[in-house]
Amino acid sequence: MEKLLTNYYETGAIILFGIGFMTLLLNNNLIKKIIGMNIMDTAVFLFFIAKGYIQGKEAPIISGNFKGVEGYINPIPTSLMLTGIVVAVSTTAFALALTVKIYEKYGTVELDKILNKGE
């Protein structure tokens, strides 16, 4: 229980991922599925950024005296998460554009109604 309270960013990320996953699975509305996917993306970003942080070290922006390599946090996990955010935004935009086209064709964004109309 103590580890759960000291790692509250990771715990929050796991809870958010579960909420997003259940939203993705349990809803038939395509917009709600996209929202669930975005919640899952955010949870993954939060988890990796929380794991990349090291207590007592600074961001690798040198101002003043150089503290040596051991005085700074590795910038690679943060830059990878920035790239992931760009990919997530692009994926969301593409999914929303597809949803608009599906709505124009079928007149609904409910997945079960779309599947029944295709028969």
What does this structure look like?
Keywords: Membrane, Transmembrane, Transmembrane helix. It holds the Pfam family Oxidored_q2. It is a multi-pass membrane protein. It is a single chain. With 119 residues, the chain is mostly helical. 71% of the residues lie in helices and 0% in strands.
Question: How is the secondary structure organized here?
Answer:
Blueprint: H1 2-6, H2 8-26, H3 30-52, H4 76-106, H5 111-117
Transmembrane segments: 6-26, 38-56, 76-98
InterPro entries: CPA3_antiporter_subunitC (IPR050601), NUOK/Mnh_C1-like (IPR039428)
Pfam families: Oxidored_q2
Structural class: mainly alpha
Number of domains: 1
What is the number of beta strands? 0
Residue runs with pLDDT of under 50 for 5 or more positions: none
Entry summary:
By secondary structure, this protein is mainly α.
Top keywords for this entry?
mainly alpha; CPA3_antiporter_subunitC; Helix Hairpins; 0% strand; elongated; 5 helices; 119 residues; 71% helix
